[in-house]
Every structure is written in C-alpha cells, then in structure tokens.
Write a structure and sequence with these properties.
- The complex is a heterodimer of chains A (569) and B (442).
- By secondary structure, chain A is an all-alpha fold.
- Chain A has 21 helices and 4 strands.
- In chain A, the strands form 2 sheets. A two-stranded antiparallel sheet of chain A has the order 1-2. A two-stranded antiparallel sheet of chain A has the order 3-4.
- In chain A, a hairpin with a 2-residue loop joins strand 1 and strand 2.
- In chain A, helix 2 crosses helix 5, helix 3 packs across helix 5 and helix 9 runs antiparallel to helix 10.
- Helices cover 43% and strands 19% of the residues of chain B.
- Chain B is an alpha/beta fold.
- Chain B folds into 2 domains: 194 residues, P-loop containing nucleotide triphosphate hydrolases (Rossmann fold, 3-Layer(aba) Sandwich); 146 residues, Orthogonal Bundle (Arc Repressor Mutant, subunit A).
- Classes of the chains: A mainly alpha (569), B alpha/beta (442).
- At the A-B interface, helix 6, helix 7 and helix 13 of A face strand 6 and helix 2 of B.
C-alpha cells in the first residue's frame, strides 16, 4: 500500500518536473525571440564577463538547434526525393557532392546580403543568415545519409509494404524513417560538430568594409582573442566543453539509446547502454496519457470519417496539381542551374591570368597541406586506434572521449596552438598543418577504433594461434579488416581539412592577422576585398579538386575495399 | 479436392510467364521461361528447383511485386495488375519490422487497410493464438528465436485472410529441429482448416519439405527456369516421412534434380512403370472367387456389381478385389458395372471340386504372371525348392515391402488351391511335390 502511494507521489513529481522544464524552455525561446527582433545592429557589443558568456552560450546553442532543425527537414526532404525519383539519382546526388565541398566562406556573402535585404530593419535577418550559414555546414551529409538509408532498405521489408498496400505516409512513418534513423542520428552528431567548428566564423565576420558581430560564444571567443584576454579565452574554452557535454548527454545519448530499437540486425546486444534522460522520459506518465488521448480522439468514428473525407478532398485537389508542379519545379531548378553554369563560365572566363596563377598555386598549396595532415593523422591515429580498438574494454572507455574531442571546435584551440608554434619558431606555412590536424585527426582515430573493434575474436585468435606477427599481421589482417572504416575516416578527415584551411591559413593572433598562401587565405582575402570573381574562381577550383579526388580516388578505393570485406560474410 | 480439374477451383494461374532482365553489355538474361501453372483451392503447390531456377522471381511475379516480361498472372479470373493483400507472402528471413512488437507487426497490415481498432485487436489476438504466439504480443522480434519469428511472419501473412499464401523458403533460416517442429504444426493447422487461406504456394529447395507439404510438386530447371515436371503427390497429409511411398517420391525427385539433362518424364515413368509393370494380383481367396462365380451363375450368369454387393451386404470396396481376381483369371467380364460369366467361368462353376482345381490352375498359369513365374523358377531348379525370401526380394523391386509380401501370399494361396506347388510354413520354402510322393502333405 505504502509503495503504491510512494509511486503515485513519484509520478506526480516526475510529471511536474517535466512541465517545469517545458515551461523553462518555452520561456527561453520567447526571451530569445524578443532579443532577436531588435532593430538592425550588425556590430553587437560583446561583454567578456563570465555571466554574459552564459547567455551567449544559450544563444549559440539555440542558433545551432534552429540550424539543426532546418537541416533535419532539408535532409529528410532532399534525401527522400533523391532516393525516390529518377531525377534524384541523376542530378540531386551529384549536386550533393558538389554542395558538400563548398566552403561556408564562399556562400557567406550571398547568404548575408540576401537575408539582410529580406529584413533590413531587424536583426532577425542577420540571425537567419547565421543560422543558414550553420545549416550549410550541417545539412549535406545528413541528406546523403537519408538517401543512402532509403536506398539500402532491405527488399523484403519493401515488399511487405507493397503487398499490404501501405500508403506513402505509412510507409515513411513505419519503414523509411525508422530505417534511416540510426545513420541519421550519427550523422547529426557529426553535423553538430561541424556546426560548432565554424561558429566563430558565423558569429563574427567581416564582409567588405562591414564587420558583423552576433551575440554568441563564437563572437565572445573572437573578441577575447582580439583583446588577448587569456582569462576570457579560458572561460570560453570551458563553456564550450560544458555545452558539448550537455548536448551530448541531453540530446545525442538519449537519441542513440532510443534508436537502438531501429537496428535491423537481430542481435539483442545492449551496446547502446543507458541514458538517464531517456529513462526519465520513459517514466513520464503524462506523455503516455497524451498519446492515449490523441489516439482515442482519432479513433472516433465520426472524426475518422471526417478526417478521411477531408483527406480525400484535399488529396483530390492536390494530386492533379502535384505532377505539373513537379515538372515546373524541375524545369525551374534546371533553368537556374543552367543559368548558374552560364554565369559561372562567364566569371571564370573573366579571370585574369594573374588570378588564375594565384588560384592554382593556392589550391595546390592547400592540397599538399591536406595530404600532409592526413599522412600525419594516419601515422599516429591508426596504430593508436588499433591498439585501443583491439582491447574492447579500453575502447568502450575511449570512444566517448574521442567523440568529445572530435566535436570540440578546433578553432577555439588555435590561440594555444599558435603560442606553441611561435615558441618553436614554425611559420604558418607549415604550422597551419598542425592547426588543420587539430580538428581532423579524430575522425581517423575514431573510425580506426570502431573498425578494429569489429575484428572478430575468432580472427584475433587465428593470428595468435599461427603466431602471425609484425608486418604480416598488419598487411594481411589488420589493414584489410579496418580498411572500409579507415577510408571513411580519411574521406571525412580530408573534407574537414579542406574546410579547416579557411580558418587555419588565415588567423587573427594578438590583434594581427597572420596568414599563409593557400585557398583559405585566398577566399578570406576575396571576401575582404569584395572580389567576387576571385571568390568564385577559388571556390570553383576547390570544389573541382575535392570532387575529382573523391570520385577518382576515395570512392573507387572504398568500393573495392568494401567488396573485399563483404566476401567474408 | 472436390473437383480436380474444375476451373472454378483455380485461385491463381500463370500463363506463359517469361521474365528477362537486362544483363551486362546489352545482353538479356532469361530468368524464367514460359511458365504455366495453376494454384488450386485447398491445395499446396510446391515449387522446387536448384538455385538459379527463378523460384523467388516466380513468387514475386505471382504476388504482383514484379511484372512478367511476357505472359500474365490470372488471379480470381482477372489479370493481376498490382500487389494485393489477397496474395500474401511469408518470407525466408521473416521480414519483420524490428522496431515493432509482435502485436504491432501483425496489426500494421490491417491498419494499412483501414480496419478499426477493435477489429484489428480481435483478429490479431485470434491469429496470434492460433499460430502459437499467445503471450508474446508485447515482445520485440529481436527477443524471439528464429522459429518464433517465423510464426510472427505466418501470423502477419494470414491475418489479412489471403486467398493465396506464398511461402518463400519459410523454414530454411531455422535450425533443423525447429523447422521440423514448425512444419508439423503448420500442416496440422492446414489439415484442420485453421489457416485462413484458400491455397498455398511453397517455394523450397528442400526435397523432403516439398514432398511433405505438396499436393503438387513443380520442378524447375535452371538458367532459365522452366517447368521440368509436375508431380502429383497423392498421399494423405500428416505424411509419414519414413513410409516407402514418401521415400519413393523423394528418390524420384532427387533423381530428376540430379539429372538436369535427362527427360524428367522418363525418370518419372521409370519409377511409376517399374512398379506397375509387374502385374498385381488382387487380394482374393480362391474360396471367395468360387463363391462369387456361383452367385453370378445362380443369377443367370449376369448381374450388376452394386446389386451384388447390396445383396451380400458387403461394401463395393470389399467385393472389388474378388471381381478383379475373376476378371484376371478370365472367369468373368465386366462391362459398365455388369458382371458376366465367361465360358471358362461357366465351366468352373459347373465342375466338381477336382475339376475345379484343374480348371483354376490352368487359368492361373495362363493369366497370373507371378504364379507362372514361380512355377518356372521351381521347375528350373534341380531340387524344385525355393525359399520365399528369394521371391519376396525379387518382388520388392516392383512393390513396396508390404505389398510384396501380400503378393507372394496371394500367389501361394492360388498356387496351393490349384495344386501347382506347395508351401512349408515352418521353413518358408516353396516346392513342387514329386509326382511319386503324391499327397505327402496334409
């Protein structure tokens, strides 16, 4: 009797706490909204006090969340259309490859000018611009993951949905979305990390003669760096760490544990562990009551009839329009793309010989830095990753740490790295490799660890049994076994390194800008000088080299390697 | 099986179905070619073939998931255009949604049809109960063993009350014992008419499974898949896998499958004809034969068989072997249910006992192959003796063990009655009595 009473009591408290938390979030959002609609003010004042930092952190996080929500919608829509239409495979997927390799800096002028012109009198436009810039760092790989998941849905499950005549909506809700969710959540985590990476660029930037500053942790960091305020820099580093850890605990961990049920393999291994937040949500009776209530309402016969009636009527009105609309959209998009190509070609032709030489040398320099970054990354991260990965206990301990390091925005560590470089008398020409490495090495490490974790105990046992050691062990067993994962890691790292060149080759340090020749510097300079020809030429060159290398080297290698490892299973 | 060739009993049919796909370098690969088959009410049809024979493709074509390149699928008398839940599939690897519970996995297909919640609940609980999943409603597929998962697969494909249930190697992902157990339970439900489906199509590469389930077994060739043979398996269900008939079918199908170049029909006929080539003696004692002949004679040498059985208060089935024996011995002729004494028959009836024996022996020697063969063997041997095992073994080439024994028994009673040879039950020997030592035997 007493326990029942106690349980009831607990229920009330748990539900009450949920309502309070919900109210808090709503209040915060309203507060933010009110602050967003202030009159247009490009250069917000940034206070370096730790109290202000808390507010800034909240602003930045909400911006990130807004951008993430946008990315999620985009990814689901784009991925779905790309996977389900013929048009998608031919145009949308290659387009995604290109979009993925456009550095955010190249899009910045267009985005900022567009949104400011939409809301000329309010800071809302500027905020939207920042959010869309973050969006460009988040959305592409998510869309790609949705596309790939939809393409990989097992045939049998697809057949089930056609035999029993699932409507498109039902198929999406009960098959396509659940099946895509695991990969989408992992990609979301990576996207979030990518968003943090460019936060300092997105919240504090210079466009032509105008400087822009939005209240947020990224802007705080750049002001602190500009003023060489060591204490404020340390504050922001700590704040950043706390935010990442919080987002991980409150958002990703529960999502990952929850998404465990969408795993298609029939193993019931509890690798996902537990999440306190998820357990908390599961104990909320209020959610269950709401769910019951809504399904009861939907179950009412009259309502169901009315629902299906209106649905039919709406569908009847919408469906005939849909097809022509699709055609119009396709024609419109194709037209825009063609026009874009035409304008681009014009712009490229307009480039002077000097510019072309400048662009070529810059791209090649950055390319060699990317290669160096990956080489160094492989050299240390592969042996370390294999060492950790083959010891399962160690690996489960290390993986969250590596994830944390991978999502920590490396540019925030640049001031420290620059101090080291200065002490060692290394210039930025070579030093920028170190800066690029700071962000990208973790991808290689993480993928190597998970790759070698999947080495079966049997396989390890066989190597011990026949005492396969040293060079043979690496060449014949370990490298082939981890190759698919390793290559994924390298592709991600290479993409990251290209992007990082924008902040690594052109850094502010002690009130000065120090830079070294490379594509990152070129793009920064182009924006500063409002030289759109140069901006476009540089972007084009970068996209060209990234896409070409992706297609000719990485994808081929990946296909070969994954075919090999498939033979085994 | 009320009407085997009636058109109304055909649930689905394939007519001249061919499926080709684009191969590499502009070649077309033929998967299945000119397939004609009919799936009938209350029948289990098995599609049996090696891998590459397009079994799975056929299931997809029958269920409307794939369109044939040429030919058509007829379902309920109409061409099938799109998948329908009236034709459902149970998959080899179950194809369950791992994120839905057992109940939800089964219920979702009714939800998709727009059934209301109470109906869904009732039907789902009922089918789960029938199929042996009571108490597992809230379990997730990954918590279940393979056998239980396939039960969920069956329940889902049956809840829509399909007219045709297609099963794509449904037991092959299970371990041997589980599969065996599930097969038996499944056929039990089918014969008890507890499965809400009218016909079943089973795709399998397991010969024993096909013979266990199928009323009709269709054997496919590979590259491309064509129908090589269509074998009726007329054994009652809940088949005994140890029986000779069962093993005969397995043996026959095995030979057809392992000789892909051979004409299936010739292998088939080898099995059937080799057994029927040898004349089969009807199970009738000479006394009964004489009795029947006398009765017919009293009726004026002609009588209706049914009337006869009525008067004798015997089932027709019991009389028939006796009539058959009379026919074989050429004592009577049968035309349209009427039985007429022949000259030899009249002669037999009117003779006394000794003459009857001579008469009988002459007819047996002339018409009963086994009797004639035994005499020939006995006279060929120097001591005129032969052990029964020798003859039984010889007969087992043509008959089942049991039937061989019975045939020998019949031949012996006939031979003894006609005093053609004698039989020593204690030694199991057959022998011709020396004319000198007449009437040694009791």
């Amino acid at each position: 009797m007493l326990t029942i009473e106690l349980k009831k009591f607990q229920h009330i408290w748990i539900n009450l706490s949920f309502v309070v938390i919900l109210a808090g979030i709503v209040y915060l959002l309203i507060h933010v909204y009110i602050n967003l609609v202030v009159p247009f003010k490009p250069l917000s004042h940034i206070s370096l006090s730790p109290i202000a930092l808390i507010t800034y952190s909240a602003y930045s996080t909400i911006r990130m969340c807004a951008a993430y929500g946008l990315s999620l919608l985009f990814a689901l829509g784009y991925g779905y259309i790309a996977a389900r239409t013929r048009f998608g495979d031919v145009i949308m997927v290659p387009l995604l490859d290109v979009l993925q390799s456009i550095p955010v800096l190249s899009l910045m002028p267009a985005i900022v000018l567009f949104f400011i012109s939409l809301f000329p009198h309010s800071n809302f436009g500027l905020e939207l611009a920042a959010i869309v810039m973050i969006f460009t760092a988040m959305s592409w790989n998510m869309a790609f993951s949705v596309y790939q998941s939809l393409k990989a849905i097992p045939n049998d499950l697809d057949y089930v949905s056609s035999i029993y005549q699932f409507s498109r909506g039902r198929k999406f809700i009960s098959l396509e979305l659940p099946y895509s969710s695991i990969s989408l959540i992992w990609n979301s985590m990576m996207s979030f990390a990518g968003g943090w990476f460019f936060l300092s660029v997105n919240e504090a930037f210079v466009l032509g003669k105008q400087s822009y500053m939005l209240r947020g942790i990224g802007a705080y960091m750049s002001v602190a760096q500009g003023q060489s305020n060591a204490r404020a820099m340390v504050y922001s580093l700590i704040a950043m760490g706390i935010i990442i850890a919080l987002v991980d605990r409150l958002l990703w961990k529960p999502l990952i544990v929850w998404s465990g049920k969408f795993k298609i393999e029939d193993t019931s291994s509890g690798q996902e562990g537990e999440s306190l937040v998820l357990n908390y949500l599961k104990r909320l009776t209020i959610l269950r009551t709401l769910k019951h209530l809504s399904s009861n309402i939907r179950e009412r016969k009259s309502l169901r009839l009315a629902y299906s009636d209106t649905k039919d009527r709406i569908m009847g009105a919408v469906v005939p329009v849909l097809k022509p609309l699709g055609v119009v959209i396709i024609i419109g998009v194709s037209g825009a793309v063609l026009f874009g190509i035409y304008r681009s070609a014009r712009m490229l032709l307009d480039l002077s010989e000097k510019d072309i030489v400048y662009i070529t040398t810059s791209v090649l320099l950055t390319f060699s830095r990317v290669l160096a970054t990956i080489a160094i990354g492989i050299l240390w991260a592969v042996p370390a990753g294999v060492y950790i990965g083959m010891r399962k206990r160690l690996a489960t301990k290390f993986q969250p740490l590596i994830q944390f390091l991978a999502s920590y925005p490396a540019p925030m560590l640049y001031p420290i790295a620059l101090l080291v470089l200065e002490a060692a008398h290394i210039g930025l020409g070579i030093g920028s490799v170190l800066l690029m490495l700071l962000g990208t090495q973790w991808y290689i490490l993480y993928n190597t660890v998970s790759g070698s974790m999947s080495l079966s105990d049997d396989l390890i046992g066989v190597t011990r049994l026949f005492s396969i050691k040293g060079f043979t062990l690496w060449k014949k067993v370990i490298i082939p076994a981890i190759a698919p994962q390793l290559i994924t890691g390298i592709i991600t790292a290479a993409g990251g390194a290209w992007n990082a060149s924008i902040v690594a080759e052109y850094v502010s340090y002690r009130n000065n800008i120090i830079s070294t020749r490379g594509i990152g510097t070129l793009l920064n300079r182009a924006i500063e000088k409002n030289d759109f020809h140069l901006l476009f030429g540089g972007t084009f060159a970068m996209i060209l080299i990234v896409v070409l290398i992706n297609m000719t080297v990485w994808k081929r290698l990946y296909r070969k390697v994954s075919q090999l490892s498939q033979l085994e299973s | 099986m009320t009407d085997q060739n009636g058109t109304t009993n055909i649930i689905a049919a394939l007519s001249h179905v061919t499926k080709t796909i684009e191969g590499t370098r502009r070649t077309t690969v033929t998967i299945v070619e000119d397939i004609n088959l009919q799936l009938k009410k209350d029948r289990i049809t098995a599609l049996l073939g090696p891998s590459g024979s397009g079994k799975s493709t056929l299931i997809k074509i029958i269920s409307g998931l794939q369109k044939p390149t040429s030919g058509e699928v007829i379902f309920n008398g109409m061409p099938l255009e799109a998948p329908t839940s009236k034709i459902s599939i149970a998959f080899q690897n179950f194809a369950l949604f791992p994120w839905l519970t057992v109940f939800e996995n089964v219920a979702i297909v009714l939800e998709a049809k727009g059934a209301d919640r109470q109906e869904i609940k009732d039907k789902a609980l009922k089918i789960l109960d029938t199929i042996g999943l009571d108490g597992f409603e809230d379990a997730y597929p990954k918590e279940l063993s393979g056998g239980m998962k396939q039960r969920v697969g069956f329940a889902r494909s049956l809840i829509v009350e399909p007219e045709l249930l297609c099963m794509d190697e449904p037991f092959s992902a299970l371990d041997i014992l589980t599969a065996e157990n599930l097969r038996r339970e499944f056929i039990e439900l089918w014969t008890d008419r507890k499965l809400p489906t009218k016909a079943i199509l089973l795709v399998t590469h397991n010969i024993e499974e096909a013979v266990f389930f199928a009323d009709e077994c269709i054997i496919l060739s590979k590259n491309p898949g064509r129908i090589r043979a269509n074998i009726s398996i007329n054994l009652p269900h809940k088949r005994n896998t140890e029986s000779d008939e069962f093993k005969m079918f397995i043996d026959m199908i095995y030979q057809i499958l392992t000789n892909p170049e051979a004409e299936a029909e010739s292998i088939q006929s080898k099995f059937f004809i080799s057994r029927e080539k040898y004349q089969m003696l009807p199970n009738a004692k000479p006394g009964a034969i004489a009795g029947l002949l006398e009765l017919v004679f009293e009726r004026g040498g002609e009588e209706d068989i049914y009337k006869l059985s009525d008067e004798l208060q015997m089932e027709v089935d019991d009389i028939l072997p006796i009539v058959d024996a009379c026919v074989l011995l050429q004592f009577v002729r049968v035309t349209e249910g009427d039985i007429t004494l022949t000259e030899q028959g009249k002669e037999f009836v009117t003779a006394d006992i000794l003459e009857r024996k001579v008469n009988f022996s002459r007819q047996a020697m002339g018409n009963a192959v086994l009797v004639k063969q035994i005499i020939r063997l006995l006279t060929a041997k120097k001591n005129h003796k032969l052990h029964e095992d020798f003859i039984e073994e010889y007969l087992s080439k043509y008959f089942t063990q049991e039937e061989a024994k019975r045939q020998l028994e019949i031949a012996v009673t006939w031979g003894r009655f006609g005093e053609l040879f004698s039989y020593d039950a204690s030694t199991g020997e057959l022998y011709i009595e020396e004319p000198a030592a007449n009437s040694v035997r009791p």
